[in-house]
Amino acid sequence: MAAVDFPFPRLTNPTVTLRQKCVFLLGSEVSSFFFSDTFYFSPMTFDAALAETLRTFQALPTIRPAIDQAAALIIATLQRGGKLLICGNGGSAAEAAHFATELVGRYAKNRRSLPAIALSSDGSLLSCIGNDYGYDQTFARQIQGLAQTGDLVVVLTSSGNSGNVLAALEAARKLGVESIAFLGRGGGKAKGLATCDLIVPGNHGASAQESHLFLIHYFCELIDARFE
Fold first, then answer.
1. Cβ 96 vs Cβ 118: under 8 Å
2. Domain ranges of the chain
3. CA 35, CA 162: separation in Å to the nearest integer?
4. How is the beta sheet containing 178-183 ordered, strand by strand?
5. Is residue 188 within 8 Å of residue 157, measured between CB atoms?
6. What is the rounded distance in angstroms from the CA atom of residue 156 to the CA atom of residue 85?
7. Backbone phi, then psi, for 126, in 5-degree steps?
8. What is the pLDDT of residue 9?
9. Among residues 86, 67, 97, which one has the least CA distance to residue 219?
10. In a 10 Å sphere around its CB, with 0-12 CB exposed, 13-18 middle and 19+ buried, how is residue 84 labelled?
11. N or C: which end of the chain has fewer CB within 10 A?
12. What pTM did the predictor assign?
């Protein structure tokens, strides 16, 4: 039987990667989907997700000095009459609102209301700033208008790379306002920009956010103990 020439000799070359072969056959756009996180995403089982969260929580004592520093900054800010300006995107925006709610409303005990503003909660203001100045300025513009000496900027981001969070930290620095950054996955570009970095150990974004909420509640415990 006569040998048949394969129409794509490149595909038989062992030095050509599987991705390169797919690009050759399917085009770059289709191939990019097949090699993306979306195509290969596989949800963790309950046991795996629980184990990941527990590992992250159990690693929090390794950042205890930063946790204590953040607690001291928060308590000192509230004791001198300053306010917390808190921001984040998506799930972190929800946690920012959660933190502000625990302060202005209450956490566990009846005590006086404490000043905190979630910068991600006013849809009209966010759309105004985003439309006129660009989305990266959504928090920085508010900090420029609301922050005063003695206040504290608090940012939450599991990636550390959100442009509007980076701009918020830069705005705080320029105004001489102290800041805390709740971070994860190594801290990203935000690492080193805040007065205090809370870099949750590990590389899982969900576990970082869960740890951020745990830390928020821990700080609320300390606040409740200090204020009547």
1. yes
2. 9-40, 57-226
3. 24
4. 116-118, 84-88, 152-156, 178-183, 196-199
5. yes
6. 11
7. -60, -45
8. 46
9. 67
10. buried
11. N
12. 0.82
Helix (H, G, I), strand (E, B) or coil at 83: coil
- How far is residue 103's CA from residue 220's CA, in Å, rounded to a whole number? 8
Which one, of 186, 182, 181, lies nearest residue 203 by Cα? 186
- What is the DSSP annotation of 173-194? HHHT-EEEEEE-TT-GGGTTTS
Q: How far apart are CA 24 and CA 95, in angstroms?
A: 45
Q: Which amino acid appears at position 125 of this protein?
A: L
Q: 208: how many CB neighbours lie within 10 A of its CB?
A: 26
Average pLDDT over residues 58-78: 98
DSSP 161: -
Q: CATH fold of 57-226, please?
A: Rossmann fold (3.40.50)
Residue type for position 144: Q
CA distances from 191 to 30, 68, 149 (A): 35, 18, 23
